């Protein structure tokens, strides 16, 4: 195959729902960029304002050269494809995607309350009623995704955002995948990885229910059930399946955790005949209306301090990138041509 410099792609894309005013062609010049909201291995997310409408967004900017170097092309294309098809109150919406010679861009709903991780760390742990409120929203999102044969695979506090009303939004779908049966990719955060992923036996929707068990434990206890100074030690503990719940832990919460953190997926809640209903009907959620949660009729237990919907104070300060993005060199066809 011949080596070629990437041809300049179309830098604008038709957008039908960027604002109530209607469609419009957009490119990077369509936005006034603000502060960085978060950074990753091959890009960052920045607050931005659409100059034509004044609407505010979060712009995910990914360096093509780094996506290629880290062999994440398939994950990024999958993320864009999946996000464009999703519409759920507990999932961050993507309204547009475009590219230029150096970057891939995703225009995302801006969620001003900041990372759930930051709020959890400030309080160390949450009481049972607060943890239940957040766990219910993740359960609803997983039920929605699984009905579409999509597995998320990367639940953790850092990938949850709080909006101005105190409700959760799941973000970062880089590991999400459409799977009707099993897939074999090793991915996820060490403390949250399910045993079937580590054993490379093939995994499916059950991995998400395992991660829900980890999240519930972390919210209630203030740390993950499996932890060590290095990833190998964490993996060994996960495969042993041994963890301890503090004596003071709510017994009903403990019951749900133990039904989720089961290595045998034929016994894991969420994976049985009734699917998500087994989780939703568990006694820990007794008295909670999932329909009211989905309709946002329940007052959130915690409201982020937000001056306005343009407030970025709930996000950490990040320095500007010192590494300029280069124009990638492709072997043959441009892998981002369909982005």
Q: Which spans have pLDDT < 50 for at least 5 consecutive residues? A: 1-17, 19-23
- Share in β-strands: 15-25%
Which series of helices and strands comes N to C?
Answer: EEEEEEHHEEHHEEEEHHHHHHE
CATH C-level class of the largest domain? Mainly Alpha
The CATH architecture assignment of the largest domain turns out to be Orthogonal Bundle
Total helix count? 10
Structural class: alpha+beta
- Largest sheet: spatial strand order: 4-5-6-8-7
CATH topology of the largest domain: Transferase(Phosphotransferase), domain 1
Shape: globular
Counted up, domains total 2
CATH superfamily of the largest domain: Transferase(Phosphotransferase) domain 1
Helix content: 25-40%
Describe the structure.
This protein folds into two domains: 14-110, Phosphorylase Kinase, domain 1 (2-Layer Sandwich); 116-294, Orthogonal Bundle (Transferase(Phosphotransferase), domain 1), CATH 1.10.510. It is 28% helix and 18% strand. It is built from ten helices and 13 strands. A five-stranded antiparallel β-sheet has the order 4-5-6-8-7. The chain has a two-stranded antiparallel sheet with strand order 1-13. Helix 6 (206-221) runs antiparallel to helix 8 (251-260). The two termini are 22 Å apart. Residues 1-17 and 19-23 have low confidence and may be disordered.
